[in-house]
Amino acid sequence: MLTVVTLIISMLLFFVLFFGIGFLLNMLLRMSWIMAVIYPLIAILIIDKYRFIEYFTNSGEAFGDLGQRVSKLAIADVLILSSGMAGAVLAGIVIKLLRKKGYQMF
């Protein structure tokens, strides 16, 4: 059972984790929104039970099962995954602002 404290800590961890990864990727690859584009793929890999290649070889069953799993997600899971996406998007915004203000990263 997920308590409120566990939920808040999980949301904070996902936010910080994906903000940090997104910030580093944006800084190294010089693409401001790379993590915001990659994050939905990561979320799908967290949610589903199929391997990534099966979305191409057995797409009907894989996408059907993915839709069912997404619709059955608990509110806590949606909040945790949404906080990760928010961290990835905020990393892109921060990199854009820093570059606009003249900071050159790598």
Give me some keywords for this one:
106 residues, mainly alpha, 5 helices, flat
Amount of beta strand: under 5%
Unreliable stretches (pLDDT < 50, length at least 5) are: none
Strand count, sense and barrel status of the largest sheet are:
none
Number of strands: 0
Q: What coarse outline follows from CA principal-axis ratios?
A: flat
Compact overview of the structure:
The chain is an all-alpha fold and about 110 residues long. The chain has 5 helices and no strands.
Structural overview:
This protein is mostly helical. The protein has 5 helices and no strands. The protein has helices at residues 4-29, 34-47, 54-57, 59-71, 75-100. The longest helix is centred in the N-terminal third of the chain and has 26 residues, at 4-29. The chain is flat.
Layout of strands and helices, then pairs:
Blueprint: H1 4-29, H2 34-47, H3 54-57, H4 59-71, H5 75-100
